[in-house]
Automatic annotation (TrEMBL):
Pfam short name (any one): Lyase_1
Function: Catalyzes two reactions in de novo purine nucleotide biosynthesis. Catalyzes the breakdown of 5-aminoimidazole- (N-succinylocarboxamide) ribotide (SAICAR or 2-[5-amino-1-(5-phospho-beta-D-ribosyl)imidazole-4-carboxamido]succinate) to 5-aminoimidazole-4-carboxamide ribotide (AICAR or 5-amino-1-(5-phospho-beta-D-ribosyl)imidazole-4-carboxamide) and fumarate, and of adenylosuccinate (ADS or N(6)-(1,2-dicarboxyethyl)-AMP) to adenosine monophosphate (AMP) and fumarate.
Molecular function in Gene Ontology: lyase activity
Fumarate lyase N-terminal domain span: 55-307
UniProt protein name: Adenylosuccinate lyase
Signal peptide boundaries: none
Residue span(s) of domain Adenylosuccinate lyase PurB C-terminal: 328-448
Keywords: Lyase, Purine biosynthesis
Pathway: Purine metabolism; AMP biosynthesis via de novo pathway; AMP from IMP: step 2/2; Purine metabolism; IMP biosynthesis via de novo pathway; 5-amino-1-(5-phospho-D-ribosyl)imidazole-4-carboxamide from 5-amino-1-(5-phospho-D-ribosyl)imidazole-4-carboxylate: step 2/2
Native organism taxonomy: Bacteria, Bacillati, Actinomycetota, Actinomycetes, Micrococcales
Organism: Subtercola frigoramans
């Protein structure tokens, strides 16, 4: 017996609730709503400027047309499905839907201005630019900002919590947990700014970008100026030089930046996962949750693991979009049409990852005791401080030591030494008393430099 009809993508099944906000814009229905919006606004523009002897619509007529576009819902979705079953063309079906509404409003005299001088891509590229802009600014960016806000708060909260750094996975000069999280905040806020400043380009110039049909209809008008005025009225940036399609370079730029954000977030997830593995972060049990089907003690860092997987999927799709959308054979081929239908999927996996990261960050707590214990077990990391001070003493003429780096390498490399060992070593060094006093006072937990203060560079 066959299963009832099931969603193929987990974004439309298991994780639907987490990504449903994107469906408002990047679904087929969201795209068609934008197409209706563009067709309606073009009609209003043409009649407002009394093209071809038309009269301006009344305020009530304009309001009703715009209400039709903004209230696009299930009835219009169903009507479009019927129309497209006949037209076999999605944009033509939208045109007929608008014509039907004009007839219902008693505006048949302007019906021939519907889709006037437009190729399908004139409507499509505007619609995609609008829906992508809204999806990014209204859904994806707020989710990213929630992650950054959580990280920023944690960076300040943990700014002075010293911990052993691990370069190449090995004990290294101590830092603070706050400073390490601040690094991610700084990276993400910089990228967020780049995404927010991106342009959303659009064209409105006919079948091959030449305004040929426009001039055939009326060669007295400044059609490029009209095109620019209409495109910018929709809050988009006008592209004057295109083929039948807008060249999609802005999309490639956007997706590359979002993929870059994904990869920084992936780095965050692997680091937090590792801190959890080391015990630096403890996980707060979720009531009723199961970590393992056979090992009842386990609390698995699944939020960060889930985020990693979705960030990888998102970046793979965004990379593909960036690479393929910038190529179109001669004046037009249809590959971009199929490719662009996956924009929502690409952003959906990123949005799901953001949701998991926020949840994961809310389920961990800093284990300060373990951080302190780890530091106290690795006094050899002070070898850097000692040899650097000795170098300064040699330069100042207060020491005759030769090759202080080699001296400390012999003492510490691959060895575990304690506080007493280092105090004895420093006491016997040929350096000034003031330098000795400073070094004797050092401990791994105080050897964090300016780490805590560096968090303030976040502003």
């Amino acid at each position: 017996m066959a299963l009832p009809l099931q969603p193929l993508s987990p974004l439309d099944g298991r994780y639907r609730a987490a990504v449903s906000g994107l469906g408002e814009f990047l679904s087929e229905a969201g795209l068609n709503r934008a197409r209706v919006h563009v067709e309606v606004e073009w009609l209003i523009y043409l009649t407002d400027h009394e093209f071809f002897g038309t009269e301006r619509m009344t305020e009530d007529q304009v309001r009703e047309l715009r209400r039709f576009a903004s209230s696009f819902g299930q009835a219009e979705i169903d009507e479009l499905a019927v129309l497209e079953a006949t037209t076999k063309h999605d944009v033509k079906a939208v045109e007929y839907l608008v014509r039907n509404r004009l007839a219902a409003l008693g505006l048949t005299e302007i019906a021939e201005l519907t889709h006037f001088a437009c190729t399908s891509e004139d409507v499509n590229n505007l619609s995609y630019a609008i829906t992508i802009r809204e999806a990014v600014t209204e859904v994806w960016m707020p989710a990213l900002r929630r992650v950054v806000a959580e990280l920023r708060a944690a960076a300040y909260s943990y700014r002075d919590d010293a911990m052993l750094a691990r370069t190449h996975g090995q004990p290294a000069t101590p830092t603070t947990m706050g400073k390490e999280l601040a690094v991610f905040v700084y990276r993400l806020e910089r990228l967020e700014k780049q995404v927010s400043q991106g342009e959303y380009l659009a064209k409105f110039s006919g079948a091959t970008g030449t305004f040929a049909a426009h001039l055939a209809a009326d060669n007295t008008k400044d059609w490029p100026r009209i095109s620019e005025e209409f495109v910018t009225s929709l809050g988009l940036t006008w592209n004057p030089l295109t083929t039948q399609i807008e060249s999609h370079d802005w999309q490639a730029e956007l997706y590359s930046r979002v993929a870059h954000v994904n990869r920084v977030l992936h780095n965050l997830c692997t680091d937090v996962w590792t801190y959890i593995s080391l015990g630096y972060f403890t996980q707060i049990p979720v009531v009723g949750a199961t970590g393992s089907s056979t090992m009842p003690h386990k609390i698995n860092p699944i939020k960060f693991e889930n985020a990693e997987a979705n960030l990888e999927l998102s970046s793979a799709l965004l990379d593909s979009l960036s690479q393929t959308l910038v190529t179109s054979r001669l004046q037009r081929d249809l590959t971009d049409s199929s490719t662009q239908r996956n924009i929502g999927v690409a952003l959906g996996h990123s949005l799901l990852a953001l949701d998991n990261i926020v949840a994961g960050l809310g389920q961990i707590s800093l284990n300060r005791k373990l951080l302190d214990d780890d530091l106290d077990d690795n006094w050899e990391v002070l070898g850097e401080a000692i040899q650097t001070v000795v170098r300064a003493e040699i330069t100042a003429g207060r020491s005759s030591i030769v090759d202080p780096y080699a001296l400390l390498k012999e003492l510490t490399r691959g060895k575990k030494i304690g506080q007493a060992d280092l105090v004895d070593f420093v006491t016997g060094l040929d350096i000034g008393d003031e330098a000795k006093a400073r070094l004797v006072q050092l401990s791994p937990s105080t050897y964090t430099g300016l780490a805590g203060g560096l968090v303030d560079y976040l502003g």
